[in-house]
Design goal:
By secondary structure, the protein is mostly helical. It is built from seven helices and two strands; from the N terminus they run E-E-H-H-H-H-H-H-H. Helix 1 packs antiparallel against helix 2, helix 1 packs across helix 7 and helix 3 crosses helix 4.
Length: 146
């Protein structure tokens, strides 16, 4: 697209701009600031609504005692068992086992620390879940305008 065609109709980040590639007057590719466009905004909105619903479901499962806190944090950080297992250098079957509340409660401090490091949290936070998902509040507020 040409520089004049770069979308400027708004996006997920409000007034912040993202960079798009465009063709200048001389036919060369250049970086052009963009506010985004509505179609991309709608897609992002739908994605974040899906993530928020999954996070609320994971939080409810943890609160009911059906799953351990790792499920919630895996969901928030959009990880699956295989990815988390890779990051903590464990077999997938062990991570699946640690998703159960009883197995999670028996984790040794060193292994808890490895999980905390992956999620960039203090190790104590692994046991304390938010009562609501504040992380998504601003994104959902924006997303609901589409």
């Amino acid at each position: 697209m040409n520089r004049s065609e770069v979308p400027q109709s708004g996006g997920l980040y409000g007034d912040l701009r993202e960079v798009a590639y465009a063709v200048d007057e001389n036919g060369r590719y250049v970086l052009e600031p963009s506010l985004g466009w509505d179609a991309k905004g709608i897609a992002n909105s739908q994605f974040w609504k899906t993530v928020e619903a999954a996070a609320r479901a994971a939080l409810a499962a943890v609160e009911r005692g059906e799953a351990g806190p790792l499920l919630f944090y895996m969901t928030i950080y959009q990880m699956d068992v295989a990815l988390l297992a890779t990051y903590v250098s464990l077999p997938s079957w062990r991570v699946r086992r640690h998703l159960r509340p009883g197995a999670f409660a028996r984790l040794k401090p060193a292994l808890r620390q490895r999980y905390a490091d992956v999620f960039d949290l203090p190790v104590e936070m692994l046991d304390h879940l938010p009562s609501d998902i504040q992380k998504f509040a601003e994104i959902l507020q924006w997303a609901n305008k589409f």
